[in-house]
Amino acid sequence: MRHLRITSRLVALAVVTLVGAGACAFDPQAGGSGGGGAAPVGAAETVTGANGTPGPDQRAATPKPKPTTPTPAKPTPSRATKPKPTRTAPTPDSTSTKPAGCPQGEHQRAVETYLAQLGGFGRVTVDGRQSAADCAAIKKFQKRYDIRPPQGRAGPTTYDVAKRLATTDTSRCKAGSGLTFCVDLTRQTTWVMRNGKVIVKPTVTRTGMAGYRTPAGTFRINYRNIKEWSDPYEVWLPYWQHFTQGMGFHETTTYLHDKSIGSHGCVNLLHADAVRYWELGKVGSKVVLVGRRPGT
What we know:
By secondary structure, the chain is of the alpha+beta class. Helices cover 21% and strands 19% of the residues. Among the domains are: 20-35 and 173-290, L,D-transpeptidase catalytic domain-like (Beta Barrel); 96-166.
């Protein structure tokens, strides 16, 4: 029995020695999952289940009972006359441009304006009225930034994300030469520059919450790990790139657009963005953070 206890302690010590020590993570009690819809890095990184709660862009629909109409009895044709065939006229819905199941949101015109400004999501008409083309563009935008559910409705989350991205001033990041990761803490957006030119357009992020403010300043990535373990918060940090005080870039472990929570100082990314940042980054890469997250 004594030999078994000694062996167990040695195994535990070996696990602690082999695993890294990240300093920031999300509250593990919060629900949600990493964004982008892509597969996780590995089974060990799936630390929280997918958030099944409808997002704020979803409008609950109350099913209406369908009226029942009694079916009239078919008349028996006489021998002298034959029944005339019935011609059904096409309904207006068959030629309508309004997509079925794509409701119009309260921020329709504003979202159309921002998507037209951003470009890359398809044709939109800035008129405040939902159309099949508008719906497709909004859905594409929602899927890109993991806005749930991606049903084409211009709700508050879609409006907020589109506005933040469209109003990000990339010139605020004094990148200089070489590759630089830029973060606008005020708008909660991030992008990448090389030799003063944007090579990765602004995308969404979520930084430190109240009490764990992510500081503004210029830093360098000094440690990277494809899958880092955070000792204080007991959570995996995929695509970890540390730059200061236990803070770094990594894939989000909760629903990114839940603003009621935040990181413990880290710059959290959707899956696709975390992978892209990992591919571009290296030890020594510059990180410039400007502004301050509201409420911190």
